[in-house]
Design goal:
By secondary structure, the chain is α+β, with helices and mostly antiparallel strands. β8 and β9 form a beta hairpin. Helices cover about 20% and strands about 40% of the residues. Strands 1, 2, 3, 4, 5, 6, 7, 8 and 9 form a nine-stranded antiparallel sheet that branches. It contains two helices and nine strands; from the N terminus they run ββαββββαβββ.
């Protein structure tokens, strides 16, 4: 990937996500399972199919597994019949828009492996997330995708 997107810094308020959580043992398993997870989630909520308010989020865990929530932003946990919640903390995030969804994995690798080390910030121990324009019938992202990485300043000790 030669033409890298420039991250912008954005501050957001707290966002409550409601959706379905799944746990994967490896990146390969997650790559296979997440599209199925999206298909299942959207099949249970067909009105969301054209929503641009779809989120995929990774809560912070210490078990060495990949936890992934397919969901939507919601006003409050009340009135949600089924689903799990995950709160995206208010604060500063590095945001990158990825127009070519085939470049998502490479963009994540570059952001976390190269860009972050030179950004003057570090990743905060909070959920990372992606915001989707749409999800296809196959469970793959369609259109631009935004990657959001929570940040905090590097302390000068």
């Amino acid at each position: 990937m030669t033409d890298r997107p420039n991250p912008v810094f954005q501050t957001i308020g707290e966002v409550l996500l409601i959706g379905r959580m799944a746990t994967y043992n490896s990146q390969a398993e997650a790559s296979q399972g997440i599209p199925k997870q999206w298909r299942s989630f959207l099949a249970d909520h067909p009105a969301l199919g054209s929503s641009s308010n779809l989120y995929g989020a990774w809560p912070c865990t210490d078990d060495g597994k990949i936890h992934y929530l397919t969901g939507v932003a919601h006003e409050s946990p009340e009135n949600v019949a089924d689903g799990e919640s995950l709160t995206l903390e208010a604060g500063e995030y590095a945001v990158v828009r990825v127009d070519e969804t085939a470049l998502l994995r490479d963009t994540w690798t570059w952001l976390l492996g190269s860009w972050l080390a030179n950004s003057g910030r570090r990743e905060k121990n909070r959920p990372e997330f992606e915001r989707f324009t749409s999800i296809s019938e196959t469970g793959a992202p369609v259109g631009p995708v935004e990657i959001w990485i929570p940040l905090e300043p590097i302390a000068n000790d």
